[in-house]
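Fold tokens
===========
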Amino acid sequence: MIIGVVKCEGYIYESHSLKQKRSVVKSVLERARNRLNVACAEVDHQDVWQRTELAFVSVSNDKVQVEKTLQKALNLVDQNDQIERATTEYEWL
């Protein structure tokens, strides 16, 4: 069994409140859960207006499949015009 985790730091420059930030983050996370069936959450910077760290997790018997799924999750982040992805880290268990 392969467990893949990808963490990405993001910036939401147009956010001027936690409410606006949470709206953007919630949109990205819901889309990932519904389309890709991955576990995901905001794991850091919850109390900062313009910064976030998101984590996506996928499990499979095939590492290539896990990589593809995690890349699709990152593509969902990149497709959202309101968030800019910065640092990205992969972990394999």
